[in-house]
Structure formats: structure tokens, C-alpha cells
Design a protein that fits this description.
The complex is a heterodimer. Chain A is built from six helices and no strands. Chain A is mainly alpha-helical. In chain A, helix 2 runs antiparallel to helix 5, helix 2 runs parallel beside helix 6 and helix 4 packs antiparallel against helix 5. Chain A is elongated, with a radius of gyration of 22 Å. In chain B, a hairpin with a 2-residue loop joins strand 1 and strand 2. Chain B is mostly helical. The longest helix of chain B has about 35 residues. The chains are: A mainly alpha, B mainly alpha.
């Protein structure tokens, strides 16, 4: 018969914690967001199919501002990644700079989105279609999808701002990474989400 | 610092932590208090919902009768003692909304997930106690907003609990489409936020905060049920949120997501073009069908626990029960179309939905089979909790069978929106889930309040409710088969349906009897909180971890270290034990059984079977051994 020392693994229970529970909460909230956008885009596909068949769907090009915001999102994600790596390596000065750049790029992204909506309204594609406008629902969908993404970005800006403040107080470093890891994950999520939405709206006009 | 020391320090901090009244009872972050808050709010909403049902049942049974008392209480909604037709529609709508969302979703899942997930998993609290508190307060706010709609000029929402457009999308469609409808949407949006905050907490706690030795295959079936329920909510409630947002935009901003051109007498009544009310149905039922299981699965989990504990037997087919819950969860997402067979759906698509719907009968039948085989030759203790659990099984069978009829497109097209549907879902979803909830309340009352409920009152409560529920819902099958449509205010001018008047009267009398039975329950519940017989720490001789906590609630649950788990939760009536239970946290002298120490892997390990006597038990034991159905 084996004694207990010969099988330490069996008597040493495994720690149940696999991921910080609060960080895991973020992943779950991301799943909820994905489902919300899945609902929006599924509804879009259904409407588009019927709309095209009945000549009740206006097809239009996406504003160029949305293309710029796509690039901005990509670059800001890159800086976020650099900020996270800097925090992991205890490079606090770089961490602050990269976080600040990410925050600025996030604000630029929001301004570009706003500019894109203004452009759409100016060319006669408002959120609520005019009385004599058949097929304006395609624009309504675009506004819903992009505005809700915009609200997610605003949430990300708050997280970034909070991380930056903590970083300025020297509270973001190798041994205290939870906040910046959460911010990093969330910021990449909103970036990837915008890439998906842009491609979706581009190809399913 | 070692884990043990950290736990100990944490527990000490909790024990000596003094909180103000507001922090302890109002804005509490303790999962046990939040569970009680969900329960009490759920009960209050349940009483409101039930009173509404009795009101509209009075109308259906005695449509021409004047009840002066109604005018006294309802004022202009019951002028001359007769219920107003619009208010009748509002009652039906809000009754459905309250029962589905506020009682059987938040009241049931909110209460027991909050109470049991940390206690049965072995955690100090939820992953985020703050979000947990927010979850309750969003729910409370949502309840207030919904009830507020009774006090607005045009009355509450009246488009049915599914609030299909265009009735819900056009503010002027009917009185109940006005501000009351807006409040309904706001209430549901708040409710969804509450459900999501709660759900993410439940999932994160189950996956990340289990105590030592609590591998997934040692989790009680309650936790599995709450876990899958939370996943369903996480994936489906955002879709309902999307549907509600489109509806709000149509109502308040003038978009056309659900509204298209409507013509009245050759004149265009709407300026909207291109919208589709069917889109709403797709989005709604993508939540709506999983919602059935969001309601039912916690009740099934509770039943598993109560039946095994009170039959003093291991649950039959633990693994099969978990796989069934998983199967039901997956299937529930791909069957929403069976609510829409009459929308002009492509017949091929209808066939696919029909097939998938009928497949749900398989995991459901597995669960029923396992409940019955767990009961088979058990040393059954007929506590009120056990009776309610057995009652659930009864409703699950009788209501589930009619689901097979309704899942068939050819039959559903005839039975759609008839009383047959009302009978079906009230049995399988309403009665079954509420019986599961009652079972849970009776069983875990000692854990929630430290006292026992009165058994005699519990038995009266059970039998009156059980008989009344069948008297109410069983005759409705025949009404539905005769084509009697639901949601009609009165059948006085429809002779072919008016022949059911006496049946309607019987149903109403039974509904009042059910209401009376709930008065017994309420008395028992509130009286026992203060005057009930004091409970010991483990009054049912149960195995699960929550019964290892002190009777007095402490923040952090265990005064010292969190217990380690050594075995599965259903080790009842083992031959090698003097007692007929073997708590999960008691260190084992069962090395011979191969599971004495906390496990490091989730793979099942062979153990001795629970005592199997004769006949059928031998057969079932052999089956269990062959199929490996046993928790470890």
C-alpha cells in the first residue's frame, strides 16, 4: 500500500482559482455584448434581405471617417498592448505615455464617429427616415450599431482614464496588473468589435 | 501567506465586522441577505401576480356579474363592479410579465442562486458582491417601475406579456400602448441589467471560487442547474435587450424596425415603411424560449437535491442529469421558431424547428426517469419540501407531454393561442417551477432564517395547491381542443364558446382555492421567521456544504477555514456508514472506496455503490455501474 508521501499530488488539493473572478466577470460581460451585437446584425441581415427584395433598402457607401476610425482603432490597440507590456516590465514612464496615447486615440476615434454620423445626416440619411424616404431603415440600422459601439468605447475611455490616473500614482506595475489587464482586454475587444462591424457594414450594404 | 492562513484571516475579518443597519439589511453585499431580499420581493410580486389572475378569472367565470367590491378597489377600471375590457388585457399582460420575469426568474433563480452558489461551492461570497447588490437593486427598481404603470392615466401595458408590435410599437393603438407600455419597456430593460449582473456573478463564482476538492463533478445538481441557467441568461437576455431597444426607437423616435405601412379602410394609417413585426418575434423568442428553461432549470436542480436528500439515496444518474441539463440548454437556443409556426414560416424551416423541439423530450425524459428511479424504493421522508418536489415531477410529466403536441407544427397551427397552450405552459413552466420554488423554500428555510416552517401547514399548503393547480389547468386542455381562444375578455356573445362557462366557473373557484392555500403559506413563512421552531445546523441530515455553516449567519459563511470537500454530494445510505448520510466535508476513512482525499482531477474514480436491496434496485445498480452514472 502506498503511503501518503508517495502520492503528494493526490493529497495536495488543486487550487480552484483559475482566473481572477473579477477579470472573468469582464469576459462574461464581453460575451453579453457580443450577443447584443449579434442580435443587431442578425436583425440587419433579415431586414436587408426583405428590403432588397422589395426595393425598400437604400444602399450607400460608408463615410470615409469610418475608415479612418478603423485605422485609429488598430493603432490605439497597438499602444494599449505596449502600455500593458510596459506595466508588466515595470517600465512605469513608458506605461504612462502609452496609456495617454491610447486615450487620445480613443477620443479621436469618437470624434471620427461623430463626424461620420454628421456626414450621413448631411447627405440625407438620418436616423429617422423622412416621410417620403423608402428604405431609410438601412441608415437607421447603421446608427444603432455604431452608436452602441460608440457607447462601449466611452466605457473603455473611462477605464483608460482610470488606469492612467492609477499609473500616474505609481499604482500600475508588475505586481498590480489587474486593472490594466482588464483595460487591455476590454480595449482590444472594442477594437475587434469595430473591425467586425466595419467589415459587416461594408460588405452587407 | 498560505491559503489556509489567508482564509482564516479573512474569516476573522468577517466575524468581527460590524455593519450599520443600512449596510446589513438594505445595501447589503452579503449573498445570503441578497438572497432573502430576492425572495421577499419575489413573494410580494407573486402575491400581486396571483391577485391579478383571480381578478381576471372572476371576469371569465361571471362576465355579467357586478362585484361592487371591485369598483371600491379598482375605481374606474371596474365601473359598476364590472372589469373594464382594457384593464382585463392589462391584467393578463402584467400577470404574465410578473410571473415569468419577477417571480419565476428573479424570485426563484435570484433567491436560490444567491443563497446556494457560494454555500454549496464553498466560497465566502460571490465573485463581485458589489455587482450582486446592484443586481438586486436593479431588480427592485424594475419591480417598482412595473407596478408604477398601474397608476398612470392610460393604465399598464396591455399587449400581452410578449408585447408584440404593432400593439406595443404604436402609442395610440390602445390605452395600454401608451405610457404604461413605455414603463414596461423601461422595467424590462432594468430587469435585463439585473439578470446579467447576477448571471455573470453566478458563472464566475461557480467556475473560479470553488473550495478545495470541489471539482465540477462533485458539484450538487442545484449548482449545475444554476450554472446552466446563468449561461442561458447571459446569452439570451442581451438579445431581448436588442429587441426592446428597437421597440423603444420605433415608439419614441419614429424609426421603422418593426412597423410597416398599415392601411385602414384604404387609407394609409402609418408613415412607416419597410419594418417587420416578425423580426420582433424572432428576437423575442430567441430569449423567450430559453427563458422557459431559465425558469425551469433552477426548479429541477432544487428538486434533484430535495429528492435525493429525502429519499436517502444517491441521485440516480448524476452524470446523465448534468448532460440532460446541458442538452436542454443547448437545444433551448435552436427551437424558438416553434412559437412562430403561424407566421408564414417556410414549411421546411418549420419542420427543422419541429424536429429540434421534439428532441428536447429526450433529456427531459431522462430527468424524469432519474427522479423516479431515485425515488424507487427509497427510504422516503415526506417532508413538505419533498411533496413539492414530487409535485414538480408530476407537473413536468403532465405539462411536458402536451409540449410534444404543441411542438408539432401541424397541430400547433390549430392549437396556437388557444387555452391548450395556456394549460401546457402553466403546468410545465408555471406550476412545475413554482412547486420547485416552494420545495426550495421549505428545504432551505432553516438555512435562510435559522428556524423551521410548520409541517402541518406545509402539508395543507401542498395538497390544496396541488389539487387546485390541476383543477385550474387540466380542463383548459379540453377548452383549447374545442378552439377556445386565450386573452378573450368574455365569451357571452359567442355561443360556441359560452358552453364552457361552467368549466370557467370551476376553474375560477379552484384558482381562489389556490389563492387561499397561499395565504396559509404566507402565514407559515412569516410566522416561522420569528416564531418557528429553532433549527439545528443540519436539520435534514444532508450532505452538501451549506449545512456545515453555523445557523447564525456570518459574513464570510464559515468562521474558520472553508471546509475541504472529499466526495460527491449524494452519498446517502452507504453500507460502510452507521449514519445514512456522509457530508461532503467530513474527511473520509473511505480509502478503500478510492475517494478519501480531495481529488485533483475531475475524472471519475470507482466507488462502492449505495446499498441496493432487491429486484429493480439490482437492475438499476447494474445500469449505473455500466453507464458510470454516479457523482464522485
Amino acid at each position: 500500500m502506498q503511503n501518503s508521501e508517495s502520492r503528494p499530488l493526490r493529497l495536495q488539493p488543486k487550487e480552484a482559482f483559475r482566473m481572477n473572478p473579477r477579470e472573468f466577470l469582464l469576459w462574461l460581460l464581453i460575451v453579453a455584448s457580443i450577443m447584443l451585437f449579434a442580435a443587431f446584425t442578425s436583425a440587419y441581415i433579415l431586414h436587408r434581405k426583405d428590403g432588397l427584395a422589395n426595393n425598400q433598402w437604400i444602399q450607400f457607401d460608408l463615410p470615409v471617417q469610418f475608415t479612418y476610425s478603423l485605422i485609429t482603432a488598430g493603432v490605439s490597440s497597438l499602444f494599449m498592448l505596449l502600455a500593458y507590456r510596459a506595466a508588466k516590465n515595470d517600465e512605469l514612464a513608458q506605461n504612462r505615455i502609452y496609456l495617454a496615447v491610447t486615450l487620445i486615440l480613443g477620443i479621436v476615434f469618437c470624434l471620427l464617429q461623430y463626424s461620420g454620423w454628421k456626414y450621413l445626416t448631411a447627405i440625407g440619411l438620418p436616423f429617422v427616415p423622412h416621410e417620403d424616404m423608402v428604405g431609410g431603415i438601412s441608415a437607421s440600422f447603421l446608427y444603432v450599431v455604431t452608436v452602441f459601439h460608440f457607447l462601449h468605447v466611452i466605457g473603455g475611455l473611462f477605464l483608460l482614464g482610470f488606469s492612467l490616473i492609477r499609473s500616474l500614482r505609481l499604482q500600475v506595475h508588475r505586481k498590480n496588473l489587474l486593472l490594466i489587464r482588464v483595460t487591455n482586454t476590454y480595449w482590444h475587444f472594442v477594437g475587434v468589435l469595430w473591425i467586425y462591424l466595419f467589415l459587416f457594414l461594408y460588405f452587407a450594404r | 501567506m498560505s491559503t489556509a492562513a489567508a482564509h482564516g484571516a479573512h474569516a476573522d475579518a468577517h466575524e468581527h465586522h460590524h455593519e450599520s443597519f443600512i449596510r446589513k439589511y438594505i445595501f447589503s453585499t452579503d449573498h445570503k441577505m441578497i438572497s432573502r431580499q430576492f425572495l421577499i420581493t419575489g413573494i410580494v410580486m407573486g402575491v400581486i401576480g396571483m391577485m391579478m389572475s383571480i381578478l381576471f378569472r372572476l371576469q371569465l367565470a361571471w362576465p355579467d356579474q357586478k362585484f361592487a367590491i371591485l369598483e371600491f378597489f379598482l375605481g374606474r377600471w371596474a365601473k359598476g363592479g364590472v372589469l373594464d375590457a382594457n384593464f382585463y388585457m392589462a391584467l393578463v399582460t402584467i400577470h404574465g410579465t410578473i410571473m415569468v420575469f419577477y417571480v419565476l426568474t428573479a424570485g426563484l433563480s435570484g433567491t436560490f442562486s444567491n443563497l446556494l452558489i457560494p454555500l454549496q461551492c464553498g466560497a465566502r461570497d460571490m465573485a463581485s458582491p458589489f455587482l450582486n447588490m446592484l443586481s438586486y437593486w436593479f431588480f427592485f427598481l424594475s419591480s417598482v417601475v412595473l407596478c408604477w404603470s398601474f397608476f398612470v392615466e392610460t393604465g399598464p401595458a396591455s399587449a400581452g406579456w410578449t408585447v408584440y408590435p404593432p400593439l406595443s410599437a404604436l402609442e395610440k393603438a390602445m390605452p395600454g400602448s401608451g405610457f404604461g407600455m413605455t414603463l414596461w419597456l423601461v422595467a424590462i430593460a432594468l430587469f435585463i441589467v439585473s439578470a446579467l449582473l447576477g448571471g455573470v456573478n453566478y458563472i464566475s463564482t461557480v467556475l473560479n471560487m470553488r473550495t478545495k476538492g470541489m471539482s465540477m463533478n462533485r458539484l450538487p445538481l442545484t449548482i449545475w442547474a444554476f450554472f446552466f441557467t446563468a449561461i442561458l441568461g447571459l446569452l439570451s437576455f442581451p438579445v431581448l435587450l436588442g429587441a426592446a431597444l428597437f421597440l423603444i426607437f420605433d415608439r419614441s423616435f419614429g424609426t421603422s424596425f418593426y412597423l410597416s405601412d398599415i392601411w385602414l379602410n384604404g387609407v394609409g394609417a402609418l408613415e412607416n415603411v419597410g419594418g417587420s413585426p416578425i423580426l420582433y418575434q424572432h428576437l423575442f423568442w430567441f430569449l423567450g424560449h430559453p427563458e422557459v428553461y431559465i425558469i425551469l432549470m433552477p426548479a429541477l436542480g432544487i428538486t434533484s437535491e430535495v429528492i435525493a436528500t429525502n429519499a436517502r439515496k444517491p441521485i440516480f444518474g448524476y452524470t446523465a442529469m448534468v448532460i440532460s441539463l446541458m442538452g436542454i440548454s443547448v437545444l433551448s437556443f435552436i427551437v424558438w421558431g416553434h412559437h412562430m409556426f403561424i407566421t408564414g414560416m417556410n414549411p421546411f424551416l418549420g419542420s427543422v424547428f419541429m424536429f429540434l423541439t421534439l428532441v428536447i423530450a429526450v433529456p427531459s425524459a431522462v430527468k424524469v426517469f432519474n427522479y423516479l428511479t431515485t425515488l424507487w424504493r427509497g427510504n422516503i421522508r415526506f417532508t413538505p419540501a419533498m411533496l413539492f418536489a414530487i409535485g414538480l415531477v408530476s407537473f413536468f410529466i403532465s405539462g411536458g407531454l402536451t409540449g410534444i403536441y404543441l411542438g408539432n407544427a401541424a397541430l400547433d397551427i390549430n392549437l396556437h393561442d388557444s387555452y391548450f397552450v395556456v394549460a401546457h405552459f402553466h403546468l410545465v413552466m408555471g406550476s412545475a417551477a413554482i412547486f420547485g420554488m416552494f420545495s426550495g423554500i421549505y428545504h432551505w428555510f432553516p438555512k435562510m432564517f435559522g428556524r423551521l416552517m410548520n409541517n402541518t401547514l406545509g402539508y395543507f399548503h401542498f395538497w390544496l395547491t396541488f389539487i387546485a393547480a390541476y383543477l385550474v389547468f387540466f380542463p383548459m386542455h379540453f377548452m383549447g381542443l374545442a378552439g377556445v381562444p386565450r386573452r378573450y375578455y368574455a365569451f357571452s356573445v359567442l355561443p360556441e364558446f359560452n358552453v364552457w362557462l361552467e368549466v370557467n366557473q370551476l376553474i375560477t373557484v379552484a384558482a381562489i382555492m389556490a389563492g387561499f392555500a397561499q395565504v396559509l403559506f404566507l402565514w407559515n413563512f412569516f410566522y416561522s421567521i420569528y416564531r418557528g421552531k429553532k433549527s439545528g445546523p443540519n436539520p435534514w441530515n444532508s450532505n452538501t456544504l451549506e449545512w456545515s455553516t453555523p445557523v447564525e449567519h456570518i459574513h464570510g459563511n464559515w468562521p474558520g477555514e472553508i471546509p475541504t470537500v472529499y466526495r460527491g454530494p449524494y452519498e446517502y445510505s452507504r453500507e460502510d456508514r452507521e449514519e445514512d448520510f456522509y457530508p461532503q466535508h467530513i474527511p473520509g476513512d473511505d480509502e478503500g472506496h478510492g475517494h478519501g482525499a480531495p481529488k485533483t482531477k475531475t475524472a471519475p474514480v470507482h466507488t462502492e455503490e449505495a446499498p441496493a436491496a432487491t429486484g429493480g434496485n439490482v437492475l438499476f445498480s447494474a445500469l449505473k455501474k455500466v453507464l458510470g452514472f454516479s457523482p464522485r
